[in-house]
Amino acid sequence: MTQLIEYEDSSDEVRAVYDDIRATRKTDEINNFWKALANHPPTLQRTWQTVREVMTIPGEIDPLMRELIYIAVSVTNGCEYCIASHTSAAYAKGMSDNMFGELMAIVATANTTNRLANGYQIPVDEQFKT
């Protein structure tokens, strides 16, 4: 198992990222994901920078929808950690149990039809090409 680097045991470089995570998320908590990545500070910095930009900078997609997309991809990729953390974040942003159920139905349906389309090697219809 990967060592989890606690704040008090971290380098100045890692502490700077942890401090930014805390400030951005308005929390004192550092999730285990970040503590694990702290074993390689360049990966921690790069990953946090990307996640912060994609998940927190305002854009056309609202914060709850971003979490729902993240959950859908995480379910498809089978990432237990990401499913748990982003489901928690989605509930905090207003997701209901019914919304989660609908999301899981969409994910399951998309995975089924994707596999069928790939298995049958179905050519894309002209009207769907952009």
TrEMBL record:
<dbReference type="GO" id="GO:0051920">
    <property type="term" value="F:peroxiredoxin activity"/>
</dbReference>
<dbReference type="InterPro" id="IPR003779">
    <property type="entry name" value="CMD-like"/>
</dbReference>
<dbReference type="InterPro" id="IPR029032">
    <property type="entry name" value="AhpD-like"/>
</dbReference>
<dbReference type="InterPro" id="IPR004675">
    <property type="entry name" value="AhpD_core"/>
</dbReference>
<dbReference type="Pfam" id="PF02627">
    <property type="entry name" value="CMD"/>
</dbReference>
<protein>
    <submittedName>
        <fullName>Alkyl hydroperoxide reductase AhpD</fullName>
    </submittedName>
</protein>
<feature type="domain" description="Carboxymuconolactone decarboxylase-like">
    <location>
        <begin position="42"/>
        <end position="121"/>
    </location>
</feature>
